Amino acid sequence: MIPKRLFLFLTFLAAIQYLQAQTWLLPADTLNKSRFYTCVAGGAATYAAFSVGLYNTWYKDYELVGFHTFNDGGEWMQMDKAGHFLTTFTETRLLYSGARWTGMKPRASAWTAFAVANFLQGTLETMDGFSSKWGFSWWDAGFNLMGSGLFTAQQLAWDEQRILVKASSTYRPHYSNEPLISLDGNVQTSVLSRADDLYGYSLAESFLKDYNALTVWASVNVRSFAAEDSKWPAWLNVAVGYGAENLFGGFANDWEDDNGAKFSLDTDLYPRYRQFYLSPDIDLSRLPVRSRFVKALLGIANFIKIPAPALEVNTLGKVKLHALFW
Fold first, then answer.
1. How many alpha carbons fall within 13 Å on the CB side of residue 214?
2. Which residue range forms the structural domain that includes residue 137?
3. pTM of the shown model
4. Which helix (H) or strand (E) segment is 233 a member of?
5. CA-CA distance, 302 to 20, in Å (whole number)?
């Protein structure tokens, strides 16, 4: 399932809070009740407002039914699950920074961020569970836990993030506008129209929603695992990425439009396959920058994988070298 706009917006709000905390207000040495209750009140108000907005945007046009589950583990070649992993890791990272700003101790901040991130995502999954259009996904819940758990485990074990979860996304892959005829021969569409319906048109929609464009990365800081006298640059990471191609349906490239016309793509022309990448990356938080304002901006942007050369190995049996992959 494509992640809902609510939680992407909440992540943005958390980023703004992080920016304010790091730029204009230093984290408190001890719990600052004023800051703490300000965060609680602001967070509660935002949660209430956007829960209502989420319902009106995504769910009100579909019938509410009894709570039920939906097994979507095989959909989209797990690209949506990688998106959940990325989203909750990023939410937990930003929420941790906000909690530390209030003066909460590191351990308490880590567990608070973990709990709040999963509460936010749990709201989404619960709403899915009562909607006839979707259903509660144990797969989504599991990847939410893994994303938030990765951040929390590293923070508790090392007091730093040695493995970051990042994203990169090509802008609007080329989709064919050649006529595509329905199985009954009566309706015409195209792969481009199908992509528009699934993934939208804009740059922002492409970055957030297009599974054919998205790559999710685990960016490993080599220096943090090396010996103390290592000459490896502290900011230089090695990233492994996962992507997929030719996804125009959840389980297969077959679909039905709003009028009941059925379409199916030729599997030889549009084979669904997985992509695995190896590429250098930069941990922006480890760059030797003095300005707190710049450091805050780099901290927010640290969920984005930098463009760099990349080696691709895919399940079609091909190996590709990309001079500059984004």
1. 24
2. 1-161
3. 0.90
4. none
5. 16
